[in-house]
Design brief:
mainly alpha; single chain
């Protein structure tokens, strides 16, 4: 919508990135469910096999709760128009919440053989990468600032809980180290495809609400 495009243009100028948006279009798929869900499964399996079952359960439970809240927020808005015009909020950003839930845990565990300060540096780098993904959603007009900030904060909580439950991680197996690189490579060479998650969310919202058309950001702001 025009409002989201204006917000994206404003953030682009604020960050000094008035160049073509090709870079942001490369970054934003890093938070897509097509990439995040396979990464989650691979790393979760590795953590489980390493004997960190509590951490694996904590992480999976946190991701499921965050993803559930994200879905509910979107359904409430698209189905019934429940949102906040003041915050320009129509639902939590799925890209941002997944990126902030997965990347920090992944990078923290990949640095498991290193001393604790370096492991936590991986956690911080993962959060920063998730922040870039979140910013890309605003720049490209997919979400407002409030939607990505809330999503990033939710993912931060999930990652911190998972890392705290894994105080002394062992070295991850080699296949876990290679899997993220292979997934990223396949995604950016066109071998991977997007899951039509947004279309599924719209159809579910309409099925539950009984409305013929979903509510949009324009409806919210006009009210």
């Amino acid at each position: 919508s025009n409002n989201r495009a204006d917000a994206g243009a404003g953030l682009t100028m604020l960050l000094g990135l008035e160049q073509p948006l090709a870079l942001w279009r490369v970054v934003t798929p890093l938070g897509s469910s097509s990439l995040m869900l396979p990464l989650l499964v691979v790393v979760l399996a590795g953590i489980w096999r390493a004997g960190h079952t509590v951490a694996a359960r904590t992480w999976l439970g946190g991701v499921l709760v965050a993803a559930g809240l994200t879905l509910v927020s979107k359904i409430l808005f698209m189905g019934w128009g429940i949102g906040s015009a003041t915050l320009n909020f129509t639902g939590v950003s799925g890209h941002a919440v997944l990126a902030a839930s997965v990347f920090p845990v992944l990078l923290h565990w990949l640095l498991a053989p290193q001393p604790a300060p370096q492991r936590y540096l991986g956690l911080v780098l993962g959060l920063l990468l998730a922040g870039v993904v979140a910013a890309s959603r605003v720049v490209l007009g997919a979400h407002s600032a409030s939607e990505v900030i809330i999503a990033w904060a939710m993912g931060l909580l999930v990652s911190l809980l998972a890392v705290r439950a894994m105080p002394a991680p062992g070295s991850p197996p080699r296949w876990v180290r290679l899997a993220p690189l292979l997934l990223l490579f396949s995604f950016h060479t066109g071998a991977a495809t997007y899951l039509p998650s947004h279309a599924w969310e719209v159809r579910l919202s309409l099925a539950l609400s009984g409305h013929a058309q979903p509510f949009t950001r324009q409806h919210l702001l006009l009210r």
